[in-house]
Amino acid sequence: MRVRFRFTKIGKVRWTSHRDVARMWERALRRTGLPVVYSSGFSPRPKVSFGLALPTGADSLAEYLDVELATDALDIVTLPDRLSPALPVGLDVTAAAVVDDRSGSLQEQVTSCSWEVEAVGAPADELARLVERALIAEHLVITRTRKGAEVTDDVRANIISAVVAGPSACVAEGFDSHAIGAVLACELGTQPRGLRPVEFLRALGPQLSEGHVRRLHQWIECDGARREPLPAGATDAPHAVGRAS
């Protein structure tokens, strides 16, 4: 049986790496005694599969992982309350549901993510103009590092939506009290290669720096609409369903 969990990553734990979070989950699964399926071979590993990696330092309301369990005789509804106490503070399981074993992996299924990004380096009105210019552009080319080499990519197709959501407190570490900025609400594509929030800001303008970042949602496409990676009806709003852009 394949169970998909949604969990948060908030507070100090946001500074832990993706690999460290995977170890935390492995320990939590052992502590709760869930019948996790292990791989065969000389060094068996639990069959768990995480979704898209979260940038270190960002927090999230919508992280996911799949776990293969050796039985289907479990009350899935109780699993979040069993697992959350076994995880560090800030990692809280908010939903669980059985998913079809034949469905694709989270890495394959997720097509976009919604973000709240603190952009530091320009006032709200200037940021609004930069966003408007980006959305009407046919191409937005940035340079980024891939496998140790610098490559140029046109990332315009990965900017699905963006808007200035409000003023920024500019309380991110490394910025003084006179820093200016605003909070951007954006949806960024993940296929074929994801656009990270810091790269999105680079596409808007070289003067912008990244402050606090939060992932709000991850989305998959299903029959022409988008929804979160849990089956419909398995969880509550605001993560359950979203309208297609």
Concise summary:
The protein is of the alpha+beta class.
Mean pLDDT: 87
CATH A-level architecture of the largest domain:
2-Layer Sandwich
Radius of gyration, CA atoms, in whole angstroms: 19 Å
> Domains counted in the coordinates: how many?
2
CATH class of the largest domain: Alpha Beta
Helix/strand order, N-terminal first? EHEEHEHEHEEEEHEEE
Unreliable stretches covering 5 or more consecutive residues: 237-245
Major β-sheet annotation? 10 strands, mixed
CATH topology of the largest domain: Alpha-Beta Plaits
Helix/strand/pairing category: alpha+beta
Characterise the protein shown here.
- By secondary structure, the chain is an alpha+beta fold.
- The protein has two domains: 2-103, Alpha-Beta Plaits, CATH 3.30.70.580; 109-222, Alpha-Beta Plaits (2-Layer Sandwich).
- 18% of the residues lie in helices and 36% in strands.
- The protein contains five helices and twelve strands.
- Strands 1, 2, 3, 4, 5, 8, 9, 10, 11 and 12 form a ten-stranded mixed sheet that branches. It has a two-stranded antiparallel ribbon with strand order 6-7.
- The radius of gyration is 19 Å and the shape is elongated.
